[in-house]
Write a structure and sequence with these properties.
It is a single chain. This protein is of the alpha/beta class and 251 residues long. Helix content is 37%, strand content 15%. Strands 1-2-3-4 form a four-stranded mixed beta sheet. Strands 5-6-8-7 form a four-stranded antiparallel beta sheet, covered by helices on one side. It is globular and about 55 Å long.
Length: 251
């Protein structure tokens, strides 16, 4: 809401639902042969850090292969070690036709990329695709340094450790505070869902006033998502968790 009008011929289907609904969409809304590509986040970001059921992405990719549709993985939020793998799509061993990346790719500098199979990327003619800021040298150097740090500092493994650490605390909070409805995530991409948006805003405000910046998400604005730097120390992580616990007690 508030961002219309949307481009025409872009169709939306429920996330993580049985792929039979996707096939039904082809029968009732748009024919499969008219669909160029299906794009999905391996874990929903703004939607509230929702992890799809095991095998769902694989099933979607199989539907794409069946109908000759490209499968695009949106790894803007999930990419570069955030979920415990370099790319979240690796959790199901899927090789997408295209991967969209940004955010962590640039190590803090503005950089985004579309990476794909050669037969797709080379399909356009010379000069058919371009961009004002494509291939900025400084941003590319920052990206190479970030990827090097991910590998040398074993940040995929660290993401799993951080996610497990958060999850243990969050589950203990869930037992104490009925307002926490769900704890979910993959690797360091973790979140918990509160009963309502007002409580979520109040918690974020309390944390901000006590030195911790939280980011909310979810369709109803009632999800606290965790986006800690993967190089955060255990001491810093525990300090943040203590502030969050104080916020829950206060709110």
């Amino acid at each position: 809401a508030g961002f219309e009008p949307f481009p025409g011929d872009v169709y939306r289907v429920p996330y993580g639902r049985p792929v039979a609904q996707l096939e039904d969409h082809f029968q009732k809304v748009v024919a499969a042969e008219s669909v160029a590509a299906i794009i999905a986040e391996p874990v929903q970001g703004e939607g509230g850090f929702i992890v799809p059921p095991p095998g769902w992405l694989t099933a979607v990719a199989e539907v794409c292969r069946k109908h000759g549709i490209l499968f695009i993985a949106d790894e803007v939020q999930t990419g570069f070690a955030r979920t415990g793998r370099m790319f979240a799509i690796e959790h199901e061993s899927i090789e997408p036709d295209l991967i969209v990346t940004a955010k962590s790719l640039g190590g803090g500098l503005p950089l985004a990329a579309v990476t794909g199979k050669a037969d797709i990327m080379d399909r356009t003619g010379p000069g058919a695709l371009g961009g004002t800021f494509g291939g900025n040298p400084m941003a590319c150097e920052a990206s190479l340094a970030a990827i090097d740090a991910i590998e040398k500092c074993h940040l995929c493994e660290r993401a799993v450790e951080l996610g497990d650490h958060f999850r243990q605390r969050a589950l203990s909070w869930q037992r104490r505070f009925p307002a926490i409805r769900d704890v979910r995530g993959l690797g360091a991409m973790q979140a918990f869902e509160l009963a309502d948006a007002d409580s979520t805003k109040a918690m974020a405000k309390y944390c901000y006033e006590h030195g911790l910046i939280l980011v909310t998400a979810g369709t109803y604005g009632n999800v606290i998502r965790i986006l800690m730097p993967l190089v955060v120390s255990d001491e810093q992580m525990n300090e943040a968790l203590d502030i969050m616990q104080s916020a829950l007690e206060a709110v």
